[in-house]
Amino acid sequence: MDLIYSDEDRCFRERARTWLSTNVPRGTRPAHGAAAAQFDRDWQRRMYDGGWAGINWPTDYGGLGLSGLQQVIWYEECARAGAPHYINTSYIALMHAGPTVMTRGTEEQKAFHLPRILKGESLWCQGFSEPNAGSDLASLKTRGRVEGDHIVVNGSKMWTTDAKYADYQELLIRTDPTSERHKGLTWLICDMTAPGIDIKPIRTMLMDEHVNLVFYDDVRIPLANVVGEVNQGWSTALSTLSFERGLGFIGDQLELYERVNRAIHLAGKLRLETGKLAIEDDGIAQKLASLKADALAIRAMTLAHITESDRTGQPGPQGSLMKLIVTGTHKALSETVGEMLGWEFLEFDGDRTAHPWTYDYLWSWVFTISGGTSEIQREITADRLLGLPRAR
Amino acid sequence: MFLAPEGDEMEIATAAADFLAEAMPIDRLHSSGSADMSAAMRGHLGEMGWFALAVPEASGGSGLSAVEHALFFREVGRQCGPVDVLAQVLAARLPAPDDVHAALLSGEIGVALAVGDGDRTRVIGGTNAAYALNVTPDRTWFARLADAGETRPALDPATSMRLTDGVLVEPVVKTNGPDVWRFGVLGTAAMLVGIAEAALDLIVEYAKVRETFGRKIGAYQAVRHPCADMALRVEAARCQLWYAAAALKEGRDDVDTHLDAAKHLANQAALANADSNIQLHGGIGVTDEHHAHLMLKHAMLLGKLFGGKRAVLARLLHAKAA
Ligand SMILES: Cc1cc2nc3c(=O)[nH]c(=O)nc-3n(C[C@H](O)[C@H](O)[C@H](O)COP(=O)(O)OP(=O)(O)OC[C@H]3O[C@@H](n4cnc5c(N)ncnc54)[C@H](O)[C@@H]3O)c2cc1C
Predict the structure, then answer these.
(1) What residues does A146 pair with on adjacent strands?
(2) Which of A53, A113, A266, B298 has most Cβ atoms within 10 angstroms of its Cβ?
(3) Whole-prediction pTM
(4) Which residues of A touch B218 (CB under 8 A)?
């Protein structure tokens, strides 16, 4: 074991730093809406033009063919340079739609979609969950019937993040009406401009509208858009979930460490209701120091997992642990800062730039619920990592 | 960059695990008089070269690094091995007179740890040890034990405790610098990670066989989820341990920050996992014949050595990592 970056890795970091120093967008990203989506597209395009898109994607698909570790280095340098956060409107396209098409799609699908994703020309959303199918995804009911060379879709999806700005959707539906649970599902590429799609935003506790209900009324999707086989969509969906869970959080490690340091800096300036500086309060000081240790551990875990998966060629089963610790640390940090901020923490109008800590606090439930709840991550850990008898 | 044991490192870890499972299995602690390292056990470890593992070759050691040191002590921790093993290994790093150094490596003389406790000194381990080691972050004293001191009843069956005045009046060796402290923090953190892992292994094994209400307890989420939390504590503490070990091996500037983080995470993981392990075993978990309490008591002791909770957190608060 060692912490030594190869010459190649060091060079890569150096080049990334240089490029970022002159290319990071100046203004702040708009908090939400179409303007935010446009900002994310522009940033992706800029990275593409600069030769930085798809760092660990194979060169055959327009990527740079580099290692997972170099992808981590890139995120570290982005955090250092104050570049836009990687969890943005491009996230689904880059982190799981792209990789799913890459591993399970046809040559035509790859040739069409992968370059567009890298260039920021197409944003994706994920249409898996429904009003009555979240943790228990296999109980989904949105249905499709094959008619000639199309599948005609009817039903509804819920919680679809950024559906309004997405060009395509990962759509998981039931195509065999007699089937139950994991059988008879199909994974489709859904063009979000197709007739019959209606999107209704859901207002959240963050006072935003980034999640949506999506209704499908006789939406016709070409059979050529099936990824994997008709009625075998569960297998494709598992690939999507493995990408989402496996390395979905590798960009957060340095970011979190720096946010802990920012909180410690803040604690040296803020007075509590006791009149003491926050940093002089044993309870707060201990929590902040402990969070620093957690942030360092997250970084060590990231490096351990990514260097291992670079060797084995696939993400290990620790993705769920990664999600648990990142989301848990995120939540504990915003709670601790909330204690320090006093009344100011109770000011909020939905503007994440003006009230970043309150926003983060509210966001912490999005983190622990979406992409598989913390309870489900514990279930996965118990099943796959520990081999305990199944609960279900 | 690779953050897990590989190649020769794995071989050392396996050899250590096999050897320790024979030489100091945790089962030993169920018979009375099993605390500390007996002179015979000490000689055996010395003969097999374990005290010399990370001692430079020029000083008669095997010349391996902090990484192997951590791998070895993780296995010691799994067996709730006596603290004397660490004291002996640390003393062997000192520039002691040749004859003393040789006797340390061979296990001919034994070493206990001495830690300040108010105006007195608490001697941990080694009732048959002639020497004691007192380590702080910036200096180390190694002295002959002047008196046997007053034996105190020890909660941890693996380790004896005595209280004495002025044991370290005439140190044989006094060195400045952080080297011994760093290897002490790393070794202790590694032992705690070993305990956290052993506690997880025990409960996972039990949860697969114990049945209540017609189901294995491992199928109940009230058991499964605490087990998943135990796995997370292990994973975080273990990855940080590897990071700290590699940082010490490579002489990085921010090594102390990573060691403190490793110690803090290991303190938490061992204590919380030992706790959950008892609870999830039910009644059998509180019996003397079970290993569960041994892990808890040993974790409580190790948690105070080389960085207790408050000391470690106070340092971490303002520490910087590159
Ligand atoms: C902000 C946000 C954005 C999202 N974005 C998307 C998206 O873009 N695309 C998409 O497809 N989905 C998205 N989701 C949906 C998300 O994946 C689901 O909300 C999540 O999987 C939980 O499903 P549910 O809401 O139906 O809750 P339920 O499954 O009904 O769960 C209710 C509670 O029961 C617990 N629970 C359920 N089953 C078990 C079990 N077996 N063991 C223990 N506890 C259990 C859960 O942890 C939870 O606490 C998003 C959700 C949110 C909140």
Answers:
(1) A151
(2) B298
(3) 0.96
(4) 382, 388-389
Beta bridge partners of A172: A187
A244 catalytic? Reply is yes
Contact at 8 Å (CB) between B185 and B311?
A: no
Are B261 and A299 within 8 A, CB to CB? no
Note the pLDDT tens digit of each residue in A370-384.
999 999 999 999 999
Check pocket membership of A161 for ligand 1, CB cut-off 6 A. Answer: yes
**Residue reference for tokens 């921010």:** B254
Residue range A249-385 forms a domain whose CATH class is mainly alpha
Nearest CA to ligand 1 atom 51: A370
**Cα A249 vs. chain centroid, distance in angstroms?**
7
* Collapsed DSSP state (helix, strand, coil) of residue A49: helix
Is domain A7-123 annotated with CATH 3.40.50.2020? no
Give the C-alpha separation, A361 to A369, whole Å: 14
Interface residue A308 vs chain B (CB under 8 A): yes
Joined tokens for residue B36: 């500390």
Question: Which position among A76, A77, A170, A244 bears the catalytic label?
Answer: A244
Rounded to an integer, what distance in angstroms lies between the CA atom of residue B68 and that of residue B75? 11
Closest Cβ–Cβ partner in B204, B309, B312 for A386: B204
The Cα of A261 is separated from the nearest Cα of chain B by a number of Å equal to 9
Q: What CATH number is given for A125-231 in this structure?
A: 2.40.110.10
Question: Total structural domains in chain B?
Answer: 1
Helices and strands counted in chain A (H then E): 12, 7
pLDDT for B275 equals 98
| A298 chain-B contacts, CB cut-off 8 A | 236
Q: Where are the domains of chain A?
A: 7-123, 125-231, 249-385
The pair of structure tokens assigned to A264 is 């410690």
A174-215 pLDDT, tens digit per residue, is 999 999 999 999 999 999 999 999 999 999 999 999 999 999
Partner-chain contact B224 A391, CB within 8 Å: yes
The answer to whether A268 contacts chain B (CB < 8 Å) is: no
Contact indicator for B253, B322 with CB cutoff of 8 Å: yes
Would you give the distance in Å from CA B54 to the centre of its chain? 15
Rounded to an integer, the average pLDDT of B212-222 is: 97
Residue of A nearest to B5 (CA): A1
Would you tell me how many other CB atoms lie within 10 Å of the CB of residue A43? Answer: 20
- Residue A316 has a pLDDT of 79
**Where are the alpha helices (H) located in chain A, listed in sequence order?**
7-23, 34-49, 68-81, 91-92, 98-104, 107-118, 233-246, 253-267, 282-312, 319-341, 356-369, 374-380
